[in-house]
UniProtKB/TrEMBL annotation:
Domain of life: Bacteria
UniProt-recorded name of the protein: histidine kinase
Keyword 4Fe-4S part of the UniProt annotation: no
EC id: 2.7.13.3
Subcellular location: Cell membrane
Transmembrane stretches, start-end: 26-43, 50-67, 96-113, 119-138
Gene Ontology molecular function, alphabetical: phosphorelay sensor kinase activity
Keyword annotations: Kinase, Membrane, Phosphoprotein, Signal, Transferase, Transmembrane, Transmembrane helix, Two-component regulatory system
UniProt domain Histidine kinase: residue ranges: 165-366
Amino acid sequence: MLFALAALLALLGTVTDPAHARRLHLVAVCDTAVAAVALLYPWRRTVRNAPALIGLAGFVVLGMSTWSFGGVAAGTGPFLVLLYAWAALHFPRWILLAYVLPATLAYLIPLIITGQPPLVLGSAAIIMPVAVTVALLIEAQARHLRDDRERLARIERWRAAMINTLAHDVRSPLSAVQIVLDELREDATGVEALMLDGALRQAARINRLADALLDVQRIDSSGELKLDRQEYPALTLVRDALTYLHPDEEIEVEVGPDLTIEVDKQRFEQILLNLVSNALRYGGPPVVIRISRDGDVDRLEVRDHGPGIPESLRGSLFGQFAVGGPEGVGLGLWIVRQLAVAHGGTAAAEHRDPGVAMIVTFPALPSRLTPP
């Protein structure tokens, strides 16, 4: 782009300086050639710093430009600084220092050839230190940014490996625990049966948490989740999900017996359990679950009667690790929003007096929409 711009300016220069039109046309052709090589040559197949050779060709063309304008370096200086700035973004500092000699020669030789006075020649003592200093500052900043990016990439790889390892390693011992609990449950009665039922529910919940960790990794890596959406009775979905919670929790369900919704059953349960768990943990009883239909959108509402959302959290409520604390890591609402988006819906918080209502929408599948 830099050399294409230089070629365009050389052509425009023929209008203001027609006496040197042939020279300027030559400069435009050279600039275009360098731009084409820079764009089309397969640099990725060469050694890392091979594109620095473009800079050497650029200095030659800049020298030709000064000569074409009869020794006027008004345009050469800025392009020299820009060329150095480009090099600083991509190459180590030793290349910038190696550029000093060819850049100085490209600046001075045309001035000497055209017989410029010593005062003009002395301008190199200003332009070259400025170009090198600017380039070194840019190179230092670019190097720090590259180092930070590599460090963040290493942290991200470690985090992804940790999540995968944790999620997978939890499943094996958990499966053994569930098998033992199932065997014990077959012969248990009375209080023992209730205790084992509770243990099985919590084991299933741990398994779902492992799935949630894997969901976090899948969403981060691919940006999307594959869903298996089918039509289910809404009331049955809610009742099945609530079996994972303690039966003594103060939860009210307001869902019509004939209402059906089209969702991924497992993901819907994740959404509902995350919202209800948050309402029980941070809000106040009773927790009310409502599902209603608004046109072609099904609307899930989970409302608590607690103190509401602090002002400081409203802007980041659905972000990763936004509401973490002693009882959680702050991924629940982020997962809720990602699962809602995967369904084509939304997740939002609405103020109530008292409390707050978490609203998740589930658009109907295209096959169920009535054509106009």
